[in-house]
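For the sake of transparency, this paper describes our internal protein records without simplification. Because each token names a local backbone shape, the row as a whole describes the fold. One such record is reproduced below, unchanged from the form in which we store it:
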Amino acid sequence: MSVFLWRGRLPPIGPPSNTAGTTHSARANCLPPSIALQWRMPELSRRRSTDAREECWHIYYGDVHAGTIAIRSGNPHDEDPWEWHCGFYPGSHPGEHQSGTAATFDQARSDFEAAWEVFLANRTQADFRAWRDQRDWTARKYEMWTTGEKLPSQKPSSMMRCPCCEMFDSHRLENTLIHVPHITAEHKSREVRRAQTVQ
């Protein structure tokens, strides 16, 4: 897998297809001195996708997949050949994502950078943590499928949630007897509401 440092706003060195096997230093993000002394913000980097039929680059901010720049597939010859998508989810609202088209990779990269500055300014550490948690859970889920292990939701359980919001073991008679009146009352209430809706 090819990994290239994001080139920031250094002079263009040609389209990405001409840079295979090379690495380019990126300009460090500038931070206020008080913050810079505490940590260094990640830089954008791009990795060539091995799955896409056309040239496609995944853009990362540290370990977070921040977006994509790729050659458009199936578009007319008189339209922009490149497209970009900026944003990640979970960790943001869908309306915050931006996308566009460009005539060249360098233009697409420049447009992506501008969109990313806006997107990043509205992110918190909790947003990045939400994305990483989803990534880790997805990886764990596929690992469980590969090994034949069942997901928690696929394992039989005798635990139930009573309408009173308490969890109880339905296989234990003493617990069930306590919550049967609550469950029965909830069922009757639902029947009444259903009948009123029909009328």
Remarks:
- The radius of gyration is 26 Å.
- Strands lie at 3-5, 44-48, 56-61, 64-71, 82-86, 98-102, 159-161, 167-169.
- The first strand starts at residue 3 and ends at 5.
- Helices lie at 33-36, 105-121, 125-147, 173-198.
